[in-house]
Amino acid sequence: MAVPPQTLCPDRGNILPTTARLVPLEGAMQEILFVVEEAEDGSFRASAAAAAIHTEADTLEDLHREIRDAVVCHFDPGQAPPLIRLHHVRQELLAL
Predict the structure, then answer these.
(1) pLDDT value at residue 14
(2) Which residues on neighbouring strands pair with residue 34, listed in sequence order?
(3) Range of 39's domain?
(4) Threshold 0.85, pTM exceeds
(5) Distance, CA of 17 to CA of 8 (rounded, Å)
(6) Alpha-carbon distance 72 to 68, whole Å?
């Protein structure tokens, strides 16, 4: 399913193009880190390390879109970091 090139932030009631490049203000965050984990049901969850941003999706492709949307909605216009780093965490249980 094709996703339109826009983001809706329900709490702000505005639509921002995801292709727009806003120049961050001086002192603004340049990168945001998300920890990505796979859930038991095969879906994916992501949480930002330095902000209260959490999202989830069924596929990694959908998760990428959800993370971008969440970051755009979380920050004021022009304040969102230009880079999003994903740290994938995989848990394994080994029996002795």
Answers:
(1) 47
(2) 48, 86
(3) 35-50+59-89
(4) no
(5) 9
(6) 6
